[in-house]
Structure formats: C-alpha cells, structure tokens
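Table S5 (text form). Sequence records supplied for joint modeling of the two-component complex.
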Amino acid sequence: MVGVLIAMKLRVLRHSISGSRAAGMVMGGVAGLVLAIGTIVLAASSGEVGADLLAAVFAVWLFGWMLGPVYTGGGDESVRPEHFALLPVHPRKLALGLLGTAFVGVPPLISLIAFSALAVYAGSFGVAAFSVALVAIPLMVVLVVALSRLMIGVLGVAVRSRVGAILAALVNASMNVILNQSWVLIWAAIQLDLLTYGFPESFSTVVRWLPSAWGMAAVEAAGRGDWLVVVAALLGICAIIGLALLVWSYLLVKRTTTRPLHWVPQGSGAEGGLLDLLAARGPIGAVAAKELRTWSRDLMRTHLLWFAIFFGLLYTMVPLIIDWYGMLPWAGVLVVVMAAATSANLFGLDGTSLWLNLVNPGTEKAEVRGRQTAWLLRVGPIAALFTVAGTIIGGEGWTWPWTLSILAAVLGGGAGLIALVSVYMLVPVTEPNKRGGNPLEAGNIFGQVVLMLLLVTLTALPAGGVAYLGDALDLPVLSWLAVVVGVGTGALLTVWFGRLAYRRLAAKGPELLSLMRSGGTVTADDPTLSMGRPRAKLPRGKQALVTFLWIFCWIPLFPQGLVALWMIYNDSATKLWFLALHLQDPWRVPVAIGFALAGAVMIYYGTVIPSRHERLVTDSR
Amino acid sequence: MTAALELDALSKRFGPKIAVDHVSLSVPPGSFYGLVGPNGAGKTTSLSMAVGLLRPDGGHARVFGVDVWADPVDARARVGVLPDGLALPERLTGRELLTYLGRLRGLDRETAGKRAGELLEILELDQAERTLVIDYSTGMRKKIGLATALLHGPRLLVLDEPFEAVDPVSALTIRAMLKSFVAGGGSVVLSSHVMALVEQLCDHVAVIDKGRVAAAGPLDEVRAGGSLEDRFVELVGADIEEMKGPSWLAS
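The corresponding structure-token record, covering 872 residues in total, follows.
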C-alpha cells in the first residue's frame, strides 16, 4: 500500500515539475539546507544559553512544519484522500499510507539533517546519550511530519468556512509581516542582548516543554543516567504521533464523506437592504452590490481582503516591540496598497463568468465602474479609520497632510489600477465552482502582486512630492494642498484607468475569456496533444533565472534601496544590515539609489524575458 | 436471494433543505436498474450515500447484504462506482492512474497493467497515452472514471450519469459493455435524464422526486402501458398542458 502510494506520488511529481517549480525546489532546498546546517552548528556550540536556543530552534522547525501548509496553500496535495475514497481500505491504513508519501520529498530530508543536530548535541553527554539521540532523530522527523499532516487535515475541514478563511488570512499575514519586519526582531534581540543573558525564564520553560524539545530532554536525561525520563520522553513522542494519526484518519473520513455548506449571510435577499438600495441605482449600483456580496461570500476574496487588512495592521504594529510608534499612521495606506495588490486579478478571480458580459454588450462600463465602486466601499472606510486612528496615536501635526494626501492618492490610484491590471494582465485561476473551498488556491499571482505594489506606490508620488515641498519650504498651506493633489490624482486615475479597462474589456473580451478557460491547465510534454497552452513555455534555465529575479529583486529594491534612503533622509543613527548606512557620506545616497535601481532592473528583466520569449514563439508559429 | 444493492430509508438534510427523505430501493442481482428524476430530486445524493461517499443522516445501504457504513472495506470491494464530479489524481496519465489504482485494489503488477491496457483500448483512451488526466475532455474523464469502476471486476456497478458528455460512438461501446456485463450476471445501477436510454437499457426503474421514491419496480410495471416519459411527467406532477414560455416571448 505505502509502496504503491509513494510510486504514485513520485510519478505525479515527475509530471508536474516545471522549470519554475524545479528552481523553487532547488532554492527552497538550499535555503533549508543552510538552516539545517545552522541548527547543527548551534548544537555544537553548547552552554546553557545554547541549549535554550537549540530548543527554540527546534520549536521553529515544528511550527514551520505546521504553518507551512497554511502558507503554501493546503500543503502538498499531489496524492489526495479523495482519490482513494472508493477503495476498500480502512481509513487508518490509508492515513498510514498517506503519511508514508509525506516523507517523499526534499523537506523531510532537510528536517532529518536538522534534527541530526540532536546527535551532535548528545556528543557532550556520552555514548548512552548518543545512542538515545539515534532513536530520537527519526522519531522527531516523524513527529513533525505527522503534526503537519494533522494541520492540513484540520485546515481541510476548517478552511471551508468563512471564519477559516479569515483565520488563514491572519496566519498568512503574520508570516509575511515577520519575514518583512524581521529587522525589528533582530534589533530587539540585540537590544536585549539575548546571546549573553539568555531568554527570559518563562520563554525557556515554554520551549523546553514543547514536544519539539522532547528529543533533547531524552538525550539530556540519558546523559544523567535518568532512564525513566528517557523512556517517558520517547514514549511521549510516540504517543503524540499515534494520536495525530488517529485524529487525522478521522478527519480524512470526515473530509471524504461530508459536503461543505456554503455560507449565506443572514437576511440576504430581503427587500430594502442597503445593498438593494445600491443595486436600484442603475447598472453601476447593481454591479457594485453584486461585487460587495461576492467580496463577503467568496472565500478566496474574503481571504485576500482580510490578508491586506491584517498585513497593514500587523506591519505597522511590529515596531511597537521597540517602542517605535512612527509607522502607525501608515497602517491605512498599507492596507490600501496591499488590498490593491491582492485585488488586481479582479476578473480572473471570477473565472469564466465573464461570458455574462460578453453576451450583454455595452455593460462593460458598468461592470468596471461597479467593481471599482465596490472595492472603494470595501477598502476605503477601513483604511480611513486606520489612518485617522494611527495618526492620532503615532503621528504628529506634520504627519496629517502626509497620511491624508497619500491615502487619497493610493485609494484612487488603486481603484484605477485594479481595473486596468486585471484586464491587461489577467492570471487564470481555478474556477470558483471547482475551488473546493480552499481560499489559498489564488493562482500564481505573485508577479502581479509585486508589480501592483510598485505601481500603486508610484501613484502616491505627486501627492507625496507636494507634501515634501510643503515640509521643506515650511509652508503649511502647501502641505495641505497635497491633500487636494492626492484627491485629484486619485480621482483622475480612477476615471482614466477605468476607461482604459472597459474599452479593453469591450475590445478583447473573447480573448480574455479563452485565456481564463485554457489557463488553468498545464499540459504534458507533447505539444500536439495539448488542449490549451496559455503561455509559451520558457526553457528551464531561463525560467529559473526569471524565478530568481522575482524572488530576490526585493532585497536591493526595498530594504537596501528605498528603506535605506528613507533612513538617510531621517538621519537615522542605526545601521543594522542596510549596507548604504555603513558607508561614508558622499557614497550613502548613490549606493542606496544604486541598489534600488538594481532591484528595478531585476523586475524589468523578470517581466521582459518571458514576454520577449513569448513573442518569439508566437512569431515563429 | 440478497439484493445486489439495497437502500433502506436513507435520509439526508443540507441545512434547512431535506435532500433525501427515506429513500428505499432494492436492486435485484442481475438487473439493469435505471434511476430517473428531475434536477435536484436527490438522485446523486442517494447514490453517494449508497456507495459510501456521503454519510447519511439516517437509514442503511447494503451491497450484497454488507452494510456500506458498518463495514465499508468489505462493501467497497464488491462495488464499482462512477461518482458525479469525481476527483482524480490530475497529473497522471490514464494508464498510470489505472495501474496504480489497480495495485491499491490489491491486484499484482502484471494483472493491473494488463487490465489497464485492455480498458484503455476498449474505451478508446489509448490514443491519449501521453495526456494527463487534467487535460482530458469531459467525456474522456467520464470514460476514465468508468474504467476505474471496472478495474477490480466488481459484480455491481453504480454509475452516476455515465452517458453525459460522451460521444455517440463511445456511448455505444459503453452500452455494449454494460449489456454484456448484465448478461453475465452482473448488476448495474445508473442514473440518467434520458428517458429513451433508460427505456432501452434497463429492466427495472425507479422515479425519484423531491427526495422520495415516486415509483419503483420492473420497467413494464412502472410505465404501465404508456411510455416512460409520459409516466414520468405524470409522477413528478408536471402538467404539460399548462407549460408555457415567459409571457413576453409568447406572441
């Protein structure tokens, strides 16, 4: 059973490896390897603080395994329980078989290397401890993989609900924020001087009692000759594995024998509601009402919207750890920018329901304007609230014109850009009726999100420029004029980009529809058998290069470029890992600008290489 | 003689809606049983509960006397199922899919390979040897689903809309295959909207309407002299005389 399932999974993997996936696998593997080796090195440098740190790092591995599936969209589902729902196999046996397939792949191998750190750690405790470590290492790997599967099982049932979608957004946003704001955490660690004084008592106790540290506990106990504790720790790990499997097999049965009920809000369809009033106000109002309902009922849209809200909120709140309130006024602006970025696939998210517009010529304008209105109604009030509250708490008198003008500018710019980008750069995603409730199947919108973040930021430049002039010349009137400029450019961009969008929708509707139809599939090697081929496939080397450019363009662009510039402008005393800040004065600004340019160039080539290749292929056909 | 498939007061409720309300049916062994009913009558829900894909709120389902929900392992080994909107490992070719499923059903490597090849040939899927299931057309998906149902040589087939979206030539192949299966002593339960097809193929029929069994038994008994279509319309209470188009279309 396990053997056949593993062979099946390997075959599926072989069929689905593309250039970008291979590049991602290699890069993920290398990054994981570095972390695993880091864990081993840490284990070698013993000491009381070192042991606590090792326990913390093992906890990170455990949580990485448990949160990974949330982050990557429900985990690896190449071999799904649904596929075996009809087989005469006991659920527990199936769970065991599927667990077997979970050990196939790069991550378990990396984890095996990471947990080998236990053997290194045991080195200082003698031979008995070392042999206990040899037993504990595979057990720990099985433990993290089993708990990860359990998490996927829970998600598979929980995530089908609206609450699940919002929770997933919270987790997703937290992980993104931690990645983006890690410099704050590093700063805090340096300030508290963790490496010399160790963690606070309570923190060490918690990481030492987590199951991730039980392997360590067994090794230490073996070193002391306390065999009762050794046996208890190892049996404890086995018990958790068994329990996880038992619950998981129960969830598997639940998942394959129940059907999710779709959430319908209370009181919907009642006459005279606000949305009905909106819908009564002509075609644009009708589209806006439809869109507002979709924003709250489509799990994927719910997830994307809440992701933006949590992202903006958490991003500006993390610096509170080091008592810095200066980011709070920007929470609203960040929510708008992120919401625009995640909404830029507005038409793609609805799949082929675009046919409704194609058979109703002349409705394109209402469709675009209604969608813009709905987006503004969804995002605007929350962003305004965050901005006002944030500026009151964290801002000063001079911040008001800045935040208000830029908020107006990005709201308008975002409303324009989501319409424009969604018809010019449509990304095909799984049809809404085939999504299976997982809000994380948002498709490959990474490149689109990146581009949108950049474009929306650009729309803030005029308003920001005027606000800057006002500050520089010390003219409050000019500063407040920035708000007028922000409202002006926002309105202009909304109207103008919206017009471009509905004209394109009217002209290219059928092409967009066929792109959505064919886009969801990837075909086998033989091109004559392919049913639909949305894009010309890049050769593997080029694909790897493009993926690399998109993943790493951030580092020069934001932290090393723009953030460094901002800190130079603010005369910040801290240098951290911002290279430009470590240089002497004539070089600081040029180096930071150079980094930003390098990032922009990387983005440029990341976009140009695929499109050039596509043109080449289409021309030669 | 135990029935090939027995539905005993199966019930299912989705939120406020009662989808299936105490449906009881008995499929004699060696019969070709047709299940007909309007859209949303509960055909798919009943069949899903009968084969162990959807947990019923109440009632029992038995395959050759084995309770599907008390002893799912034994029951599933005796039945071949083509579910509606089935999930498949999308990134396998048809042959790979059948071979792996055969091995999971406990066939040895050689037998699994041989059966997979034969099924692909009969269902004319062998030309699409290098196409992944994800790129199959709707009809091809039906056919590969049918192949997975036949793989382990069950004595009962439960097929949800097997002819939907299948081309006429393949439909003839499938019909011939099912007829010879029944002639050899096997039993088939299928659901369909096409009355003429059910009339031609089936010897037993059940009409399901609003989650209940409106009529069930041998074909001739149910249609009682008339055509199945007339009887169906009568049973589900639609009045043809009063059928009319939207007011603004009638001139």
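Note: Chain B touches chain A through 35 residues (CB under 8 Å).
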